[in-house]
Amino acid sequence: GAVVSQHPSWVICKSGTSVKIECRSLDFQATTMFWYRQFPKQSLMLMATSNEGSKATYEQGVEKDKFLINHASLTLSTLTVTSAHPEDSSFYICSALPGVPGGEQYFGPGTRLTVT
Amino acid sequence: DAKTTQPPSMDCAEGRAANLPCNHSTISGNEYVYWYRQIHSQGPQYIIHGLKNNETNEMASLIITEDRKSSTLILPHATLRDTAVYYCIVRGLKGNQGGKLIFGQGTELSVKP
After folding, report:
1. Contact with chain B for residue A35, Cβ under 8 A
2. Is the dihedral of CA A41, B10, B1, B49 positive or negative?
3. Mean pLDDT of A13-26
């Protein structure tokens, strides 16, 4: 199946700093990518939809100025957690949608963020 | 998108079939039923999807009732590596790119030796 990668797989940062997470579709072009967050023992929560060449669409309650999303190419979307705080510690997962009608989403392996 | 209801947990003996139910009584005519699973600390993995006909692939079978209000995912010969959280998601196709996937709580399947 299609492969989606994330980098880094885990990161530890100090409170107040910013962290960038990359999501790449390795063998297909993705005009749409999605970003999710998952806290321990909970389900995935959709944060935003990222469309190549346009502004991301954020879900209700997600701060767009805190979670900056850039989808600069058909194979790369980035999520930057700005001024990270310990409560931002979570598992961040991206998914990519191939540019075919009705195609299923392919998920990345996730990035574990720990803010100290 | 329609919501789904799944049992929070299930056990299955290794080698036996695992039947995971999902209720989606408010599904509309243009919404598909998708199944994903998530093994601990990994990204979700696509399993199968269907509209109204039963579907089968190398991983599983999907049985959708005639009224489409419920479905069952069948893992024919469960192995220990099938231990995961299984998510049933109803999703419509919006435009050419498909709709968002909204995850519920899923069913935690434990396959035991």
Report:
1. no
2. positive
3. 96
